[in-house]
Design a protein that fits this description.
This protein has one domain (about 95-445): TIM Barrel, CATH 3.20.20.140. By secondary structure, it is of the alpha/beta class. It has 11 helices and 19 strands. Helix 6 (about 290-295) links the parallel strand 13 (about 280-285) and strand 14.
Length: about 450
């Protein structure tokens, strides 16, 4: 009897133990973001004694740039260097903001994107091409996420291609910093443009399809506004379908980027943009010098390649074709323009100066064609930054902006100039003497006088 009662007691205690909830281990006290201590600021870097090209303001001679936590603290003359700051002696050197390339092709990107594969997952901070670009001063690129082609030295008018009906999809782009070997701080922005291939706008049928696409987007916006006015209980499910890229374009949240070489192509794009009230950036604009006075009032921005010109039609040389003076005409007409290289890829073979490493050289050709040095330098820096909506971060040397700074051994638009150091986000990612990417020559070698004995 006693054994039976003892067994029942043990069984009852087991059931009670099973029904009793398990105790959680003690948790650390939760803290809100306001209660967490702010990280202490990092060390300060002082770049001292250089000639500072701020781009948006005046040139500062024998100036100092203070950098902390990847940002520019101050830039000016007679700035006190804080105690303990790392000092970079830039006496006799030229300091400019990092150059920006708008036509890079898969730089810093590897693998496939799209579907479930995010662009950020395809970043490759160990792309050797990033070092080559830093070596010529390019610190930021707008890189295509698909295969890109190359442009030749001179172009001839091409036959009108036909785009598939109703296809106005944007080509993928991603803005990246050239933080070679470091993925942190590399990604900046995805799809800064609504970039559509020029084939989509060529020919009467394609123009009709584009106009219908714009009308559908207008109807979508109107229906969306009506639903908002009617409240949450409005008529759902009756909103018309539309290309959301086009909707963003008409709402002013995006800018259309496409090619337009001839006068007719340029004017067609201006008519569309004026009729439907959206912003455009035209690439190429080879014959834009002939109608530069029309581009400014239309609010057109341009991306040009000064060294690449379109062959004029025989017998109509005065009113067709391109010229290396295009940048000069755009500048005089008040048209903002950025500069592209002839190719979006890096090539170590073939003719020098035609790949992406030739971007600074294109600005020099613009100056040779009559453009001012100020506008040519802006076309490599602040203008492309504004086109991508990143003017608050990159493109000039100002307090609060990213510390993307080049230390050059000569004028930024001199073909003999080398990049000695390139800072990206306040960190030196390129040092010419250590990287050995480009040959190291003593600049005084070019200044020697050669005597020839008779």
């Amino acid at each position: 009897m006693i054994l039976v009662m003892l067994g029942l007691a043990i069984a009852a205690s087991t059931v009670i133990a099973q029904d009793r909830p398990l105790r959680r281990p003690p948790q650390p006290p939760q803290t809100t973001p306001e209660e967490t201590e702010e990280e202490s600021p990092g060390p300060i870097i002082a770049i001292v004694g250089g000639k500072i090209y701020t781009v948006t303001q005046e040139i500062i001679r024998e100036g100092t740039i203070l950098v902390q936590d990847g940002k520019i603290l101050k830039a000016g003359q007679d700035l006190a260097v804080p105690e303990g700051a790392e000092v970079i002696d830039a006496a006799g050197r030229h300091l400019v903001p990092g150059f920006i390339a708008l036509n890079a092709s898969r730089i810093g990107v590897s693998g496939t994107t799209g579907g479930q594969n995010l662009v950020q997952d395809a970043l490759n901070p160990f792309d050797q091409n990033m070092q080559y670009l830093l070596g010529v001063g390019i610190t930021t690129v707008c890189s295509s996420t698909g295969a890109g082609g190359q442009r030749g030295m001179r172009r001839t008018p091409q036959p009108t291609p036909t785009a598939p009906e109703g296809v106005f999809g944007s080509t993928g782009q991603i803005v990246l910093k050239m933080t070679y070997g470091d993925i942190e701080g590399m990604f900046v922005k995805e799809n800064p443009f609504y970039a559509v291939r020029s084939a989509s706008f060529r020919g009467g049928l394609n123009c009709f399809n584009w106009r219908e696409e714009l009308k559908r987007a207008q109807s979508f916006i109107k229906a969306q506004d009506n639903q908002t006015d009617e409240g949450e209980g409005g008529r759902r499910g009756q909103r018309p379908s539309a290309n959301q890229d086009v909707v963003r374009l008409l709402q002013g949240e995006a800018v259309l980027r496409t090619d337009a070489q001839t006068i007719d192509q340029i004017r067609d794009m201006i008519i569309f943009s004026r009729s439907y009230g959206y912003r455009i950036i035209l690439e190429g604009v080879d014959e834009g010098w002939l109608i530069a006075d029309e581009l400014g009032p239309a609010g057109v921005a341009a991306i040009i390649t000064p060294r690449s010109t379109m062959t004029p039609q025989a017998g109509r040389e005065e009113i067709t074709g391109g010229t290396m003076e295009l940048a000069m005409h755009l500048e005089r007409a008040g048209v903002p323009f950025a500069i592209n290289a002839q190719s979006g890829s890096v090539s170590l073979g073939g003719m020098a100066g035609r790949d992406l490493q030739g971007l600074p050289l294109q600005a020099m050709f613009a100056v040779s064609g009559g453009c001012s040095e100020k506008s040519a330098l802006a076309a490599l820096t602040i203008v492309p930054a504004r086109m991508m909506g990143l003017q608050d971060r990159i493109g000039s040397i100002e307090a609060g902006k990213d510390a993307d700074i080049l230390i050059l051994d000569g004028h930024p638009l001199d073909y003999k100039t080398y990049v000695e150091k390139a800072l990206v986000n306040g960190k030196v990612y390129y040092d010419r003497a250590a990287a050995r990417i480009l040959p190291v020559f003593d600049r005084s070698f070019y200044e020697q006088q050669i005597k020839i004995d008779k």
